[in-house]
UniProtKB/TrEMBL annotation:
The name this protein goes by in its record: Uncharacterized protein
Keyword Cell inner membrane annotated: no
Membrane-spanning parts: 30-52, 58-76, 83-100, 106-127, 139-160, 199-218, 225-244, 250-266, 273-293, 376-394, 406-429, 435-451
UniProtKB keywords: Membrane, Transmembrane, Transmembrane helix
Keyword Iron: no
Length: 463
């Protein structure tokens, strides 16, 4: 028989409820693991920019993915994100491809499976950490801060040509260097802003994230200094997007911001929606004028094609024909996949290009990569996991959870929409972008799960 307190609540029940309270030790443990992982991810990216470390590029590129797999040994139990249910199915589909007659080499096949498993791994190991609302806020702050810093370096690379520019990735041949440069109003020819990456135009991605999450912090923070910093991050991010001349990223940034503001309006917060939308529109105009003043015709000429030409035609000329080939040619040719290790960095590092029965296949968009790696089964399973992540973020957005969680969920939903849009332009989920996607969504789920448990505890005690 269990003891009671005041003749009402069983002591065992109280003990169980007390364990749901926030504990500094648990909070520190989760935050330590997550910040360690994020710092490793950032550190490996920065190491690629140091010429002296060039011989170890493969180590730095793979270290964070190896760490994601090692984090699976983190002790603990917890409820996993809904998308985690599809992880075993995705891995089984990939494992079956090892026996495909056109799989390249066993090493490239195993490496491809390990890479995809490491990208999905946060769905599993984050669930073992005692995530709280503060944990999510700290992680989003660190994530946003890094991308703001990357955007700021993109700004410096334009204003001080050659001084803050990292070495260009060896993947890009020297013959393409001139096409990746812009001519400033000062007459200087510079690479498109790279930010803290080794790819010309790489600052555009950082600009997109600094804009999305900058808008989120502007909406959620009550501190004037943070709100001013958020607006500054948005302005610099948009400046980098304009000068990077990556039109698809500009469109995606606009879509993501519209999604975030639409979520806010759906919640009935019209005053905040109108105010934030007005501020964003003003910054769009100011940052564009700023970019034109620095970049001149190189900015207006590139972006004018979005207005002068049909957007569908612009996409088709650049990436749309790859999607068309995937649907019309490659799906009938590879309905059950083309075998593993036939594209991407795993083929480059571990594959055999001389195998005539398993020739390398060029991949420009993620949908082609999914088809080659697992055929129609993977082409259905992976997007289903993405849809579940979006659905969960949407449900949190329209919920009545206390604090900043609904707005943070709206920002992550907007980020998710942007990431999915990128799959039609780039194989986003086969690298660091995919890892960050599942990390943020898994931490959001953990924070929401904890908030619901705490609300249940408080309601029980009040009753």
């Amino acid at each position: 028989m269990s003891l009671t307190i005041n003749g009402e609540i069983p002591e065992a029940t109280v003990d169980a409820l007390v364990r749901l309270l926030p504990h500094d030790r648990g909070k520190d443990r989760a935050l330590r693991w997550l910040l360690c992982f994020l710092l490793l991810l950032i550190g490996c990216q920065l190491a690629l920019l140091v010429p002296a470390l060039a011989p170890g590029r493969i180590i730095f590129r793979s270290a964070v993915f190896g760490a994601s797999l090692l984090f699976l040994v983190i002790p603990g139990r917890g409820k996993s994100h809904p998308s985690a249910k599809l992880v075993p199915i995705i891995l089984l589909i990939l494992a079956a491809q090892v026996f495909h007659p056109n799989t390249n080499t066993i090493f490239s096949a195993v490496a491809q499976i390990a890479l995809i498993a490491s990208i999905l791994a946060p769905l599993l190991w984050v669930a073992r950490l005692p995530i709280q609302e503060r944990t999510l806020t700290h992680l989003l702050t660190a994530f946003w801060g890094f991308h703001c810093l990357s955007s700021f370096f993109g700004l410096l690379q334009v204003y001080f040509p050659g001084r803050f520019q990292p070495p260009v990735s060896q993947v890009i041949g020297e013959m393409y260097h001139d096409s990746l440069k812009i001519t400033l109003t000062s007459g200087a020819d510079v690479f498109r802003p790279m930010g803290l990456s080794d790819m010309p135009g790489g600052a555009a991605t950082a600009g997109m994230y600094s804009t999305i999450f900058g808008l989120m912090f502007f909406l959620t923070s009550k501190r004037s200094l943070v709100r001013a910093g958020a607006l500054g991050g948005i302005a610099i991010g948009l400046f980098c997007i304009y000068l990077s001349q990556v039109r698809s990223v500009l469109i995606m940034t606009g879509i993501c911001c519209c999604v975030l503001l639409a979520c806010l309006a759906y919640r009935g917060e019209w005053r905040r929606t109108i105010f934030a939308g007005g501020m964003l529109a003003a910054i769009l105009v100011v940052s564009f004028s700023w970019a034109v003043a620095v970049g001149g015709e190189s900015v207006t000429r590139r972006l004018s094609s979005l207005i002068d030409d049909d957007m569908g035609e612009v996409y088709y000329k650049n990436r749309g024909h790859f999607l068309e080939d995937t649907i019309n040619k490659q799906i009938p040719q590879y309905p059950l996949g083309a075998g593993l290790g036939r594209w991407g960095m795993m083929h480059r590092y571990f594959g055999n290009s001389d195998d005539l029965s398993s020739k390398p296949i060029w991949v420009e968009i993620m949908w082609t990569g999914w088809l080659l790696d697992g055929g129609l089964p993977l082409l259905l399973a992976y997007p289903a996991a993405l849809a579940m992540a979006c659905w969960f973020a949407w449900r949190v957005t329209i919920s009545q959870l206390p604090g900043d969680l609904p707005i943070q969920a709206a920002a992550i939903l907007a980020y998710n929409v942007g990431a999915i849009a990128v799959t039609f332009n780039y194989p986003y989920f086969i690298g660091q972008g995919g890892l960050e996607f599942w990390l943020l969504n898994a931490v959001l789920f953990g924070a929401v799960h904890f908030a619901k448990k705490r609300a249940a505890w408080e309601s029980y005690l009040e009753a």
